[in-house]
Here is the input.
Amino acid sequence: MRKARLVAVVAAMVVIGPAFGHARLLGTSPPADAQLQAAPKSLTLNFNENARLAILTLTVGGMVIPVAVDRSAPAAREITVSLPVLAVGTYQVQWSALSPADGHITKGTFSFSIVGPPR
Amino acid sequence: MSLSIWDAALIAVKAITYAATLGAAGAVFFLGVCGALVAREDILRIRRFTVALAALSVFAGAAQVLVSAGSMRGGAAGMADGVLVQMVLQAGPGLAIAVRALGLLLAVLGGSSGRPTWWACLGAATAATSFAWTGHARSLDPDVLPILLVSVHLVAAAGWLGALAPLLIVARDGDLPRIGATAARFGAAAVYAVAALVGAGAALLWMLLGDFTALWSSAYGRYVMLKLALVACLLCAAAFNKLRLTPRLLAGDPDSARSLRASIRLEMVLAGLILAVTATFTTVAGPPSLG
Here is the structure.
């Protein structure tokens, strides 16, 4: 009976729907699901308020590509990280940031592909 | 985005921190209002309970920082990442934990002999309002009024919800007139706490939602609706205590003490659920007005 109540409470919270507020990510460059002809030299995250980037992990085919994140950088609405030379492939970006105004954690994932120049 | 085990852990430690802090502060307020009516041995039990809750609050607050770092990295390695832990501390929780610990220390020391001193009550209020140092209200611009409203909301929550456990300790006493007198005095004071809680909460909600329709059109609003439903149940239980059980206690009805204990336990379960829902929506959902 107790387990049933616990399950009901957890289910209610999940159904209501986590949205992971804020700071909220407004957009990225390259954009999510972009099909690029050339490899980007940098990656930019745009937030609705100042944020500090804590983690950014770039993977392709399950392999992690080392990316340098300056975690001592002051909070900003636009955060850019330099990328190494990337080959053709589909890249997954996993990031997490902290809102210095209220201490909230924001995180998310998106992907982009490098398809090479048109033939 | 799905809820990871780290996010669930963060919500759990947050809810424990809320419950322990408001419980410790509420116990101090309870003794300040009703201490003269409470038996000496019950006062000692309530004081020991306050110290235990204060210690739990500090440990849970520290765990919240570590779990936040773990949540950002998505693994235990985040808890050992000094830069991540420092980022969390600098973002508000560090100051909030320090203020809370200082407030709880005052609350515990100032209540160690006789009724709590004025500075014990000030310490309890400081600890309860420490949550205003972080949270969504700080993101509003200007933030002075929202932070003030959150502070009133928190002190009132401590005064009402935090006093339930001490009231249960008193309700175990076999002395019906004493239980009745304590319940009556607590009920009279709780009316003001509930009015402040609801008034400040409603005003704050209006600022954070920005639009009435956000109550059902946003995830944040739907969590708030769930919280309001639980608060409505809690208010019904509290009204039953005040209007039905307290008169029976004062009239010497021998069954009324048992009914009061059962009713307080129900209120404590509802209060726990309210804090769990609050910990959930302050973690996973942003207010629509902050877009």
